[in-house]
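Q: What would this complex look like in 3D?
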Amino acid sequence: MQVLLTTQSDFQTIFNRLLATRAMDTSAVKQPVTEILENIRKNGDTALCDYTKRFDRLDITPQKLRITDEEIQAACKQIPVELMDALDIAAKRIKSFHEKQLPSNLHYEDESGFELGYRWLPMDSAGLYVPGGTAAYPSSVLMNAIPAKVAGVKRLAMCVPTPDGQLNPLVLAAAHKAGITEIYRIGGAQAVAALAYGTQTIAPVDYIVGPGNAYVAEAKRQVYGLVGIDSVAGPSEVVVVADKNNNPTHIALDLLAQSEHDKMAQSIFITNNQDFADQVIQAVNEQLDILARKEIAQSSWDQHGAVIIVQSWDEAATIVNQIAPEHLELMVEETNTLFEDVRHAGAIFIGKWCPEAIGDYVGGPNHVLPTSGAARFSSGLSIFDFMKRTTFLKSNEKGIQNVGPAAVAIANTEGLTAHALSISQRLKSLGK
Amino acid sequence: MQVLLTTQSDFQTIFNRLLATRAMDTSAVKQPVTEILENIRKNGDTALCDYTKRFDRLDITPQKLRITDEEIQAACKQIPVELMDALDIAAKRIKSFHEKQLPSNLHYEDESGFELGYRWLPMDSAGLYVPGGTAAYPSSVLMNAIPAKVAGVKRLAMCVPTPDGQLNPLVLAAAHKAGITEIYRIGGAQAVAALAYGTQTIAPVDYIVGPGNAYVAEAKRQVYGLVGIDSVAGPSEVVVVADKNNNPTHIALDLLAQSEHDKMAQSIFITNNQDFADQVIQAVNEQLDILARKEIAQSSWDQHGAVIIVQSWDEAATIVNQIAPEHLELMVEETNTLFEDVRHAGAIFIGKWCPEAIGDYVGGPNHVLPTSGAARFSSGLSIFDFMKRTTFLKSNEKGIQNVGPAAVAIANTEGLTAHALSISQRLKSLGK
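A: Here is my prediction, written as structure tokens for the whole assembly.
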């Protein structure tokens, strides 16, 4: 962990270095992923079962790739009722927030003789990748599946690896809550390939969402274009901006909530008070000891953590905008000004009673957010990811007579004769 | 060109084959593009000038990379006033349509103790790639730049190669109309790299849009993630659906307007009347002869063109949805039903007075559209490409008390202790 003062002469250099290493580097797996994709594309289910045997130690026939309704029901029965209730609360709040995003169609006539606008429609199908092992999060299933459902996507196919054949009941229960019925016990690049190209038993989808390791990320990158993808997610990040009127332990836990995700995760604390910074640093060290994932959190905090002492909240906003963090917590009295000044952040959590973990589970807004500074140009997952717009244009005789000649002029300049003629011949038949 | 009847037994097989070759294959240029990107990232302006000398035969210093205001002004003066007026009409209609897309922010309180919503903001900067040579289209400059301007993007940097140092006055005039002042005389993968990584003279951008050859497409694909990109565009396509109450020459010209773009372009005509189909095919052959780009159009029509005879408009809709065409023209009496049944298309042009070429230039909706079936999951360029959403969540004491326990339950299940503690410690300090 580094402590930086914006007043130190080498601040910008060190700060830039801090941000430089944030992207997920998948170049090492490019070649193996290309091979896996090619193999699935050519050999379908056979290759899929081969990889599942090799990587997940699960010897399986194509007929058994799909997890049965009975298995899903059995999984749900294993989950304590309090936890099912908690998933319910989460699902309801996520659904409610995403329903408010449903966009309006546009349809108007203009004075030139045109009717025009656009229509939003859901895509037909989407695939949801869910990682296995320690990163198998039921909350992630809800966050990825519910927007698709709200958007109106008819078919949602989920893939989750089951190493050694072990099903994860929580993930299946969350899928059940989200209304997913088509689930395959496959993972890795081979699962992404199956979703993108289809196999004999798995129909291809139009769009693939969900987090994964470097293989999954690289596979999504490589199939992008043939299908849509949500984003290539990097390590998780949080920036916490807080003044001294906060409980240092709360701040410390918020920082560690990012750090415990991944050794590559980054937690940055920004404050205007050196004494308070010291208290938070001490609290981090104390709280680290009681974490189940202490080793991961410690490594993340040591390698990528930072505390930045600013001279003003204006300066904090500038730094936040340079970081364009995935998550931003604002716990300062002048929250409103700071909120207005932040242009680039995936999600903002405001006030001392709104730790980012609330947003991870039950806030309502999506927890799939742009990482590694991608908040400069992209947004968190939403129903927009699962919808597309078709524009339309309708002209009457007056319309083409009004603007056709301008189009002909430009078309001729561009050397596109048929473009020009397709308009001028119509004008001619209208007697113009 | 193939004539297909939906009644023939091998229809689906041949139809599938027709669609299979549509994507732009950039695999052959993957390695050279990777090298160019790496070289620009490491060596900046020096490498940029080297490539410009090698590929565009233009020996240039970094100080001369930017096209001067004087050069832009001089270009505008070369353009006939009628053409400047035509560009004006186009620019105004494009601006007017895109202004209607400006999305609303969301901000509400819920009964559980939360304020939540999202805020749309433009990205800070965008780069616009404009191809050189025969594919240098002023209309494309307007279609790419105006949505960025309407979205509120402050900085727009354009790159256009100038082979042998030749400026394209039309492209510069269109850029001037669109309000672009920062223009560099560079092209290819090296221009994409300069926009993505920045060099000593070119500041990096957040997002890159614009069409290009395989090198440009592959470069955009490789920098995706570090910056945003619009899409990796493939060859242009049109599907024209028309009944016999149309002028066969008009239909033929509409088909050829796609074919003349590119040998890889695809034009498909769908009708329910064999005689009318024959008339259109004959008209295509007649009109081909008078086109400036006859050779290209002929090759495209011969290799990729198709005429499909359907039994009903329902069947036409099914076929259109399988194609998910970039452009769709509907010229049938029952337009409304067909329009409703089409779920996947980039842009729809309705009625006999609305050839697609109107939309290419002066319709208003964007002409940058999803190709190769990507309309299944993506949309044409719009101001949404240049904006992003930041969600926010604010809780009071009641909020965390209401839903905090559910979040703690899920966090503990996921083994994320710090997540759970960041909430439970706050609940504790509230006396819960």
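A: To summarize the key features: The first strand of chain B starts at residue 2 and ends at 5. Chain B has three domains: 2-23+234-354, 28-229, 396-429.
Q: Very helpful, thank you.
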